[in-house]
Design brief:
The chain has about 120 residues and is an alpha+beta fold. It has helices at about 15-30, 45-50, 55-65, and strands at about 5-10, 35-40, 70-80, 80-85, 105-110, 115-120.
Amino acid sequence: EDGFYYDFFREQPFTPEDLEKIEKAVNEEIARDLPFVRSEVSAEEALKLFESKGERFKVEIIHDIVAKGAKTLTLYTHGDWVDFCLGPHGPSTKKIGVVKLLNVAGAYWRGDPRNPMLQRIYG
């Protein structure tokens, strides 16, 4: 209803052509009607997973969650994609419908200008 955004850390700025390619790939993934699979894992297991993927920002978030006393995290998987999220999610990607990417803006990690600049794609 209100749209979405996702932050990326990369050196090169996204171009309009990049957005077209990403949008096409996202909509192809949606059309595959992949189920969203919820799982609960230990915080240690989640750390190992995201460290192995080089997801430094997610690792930082997990450390913060653990510092607040969490012992487990909820993961959602569809196809090869895995991320942590409280959820809930719909039953499958097809329920999302068509995605339209709108624009890109800069966003400092955690809103702090001393942190790296991320690229935020809005849809």
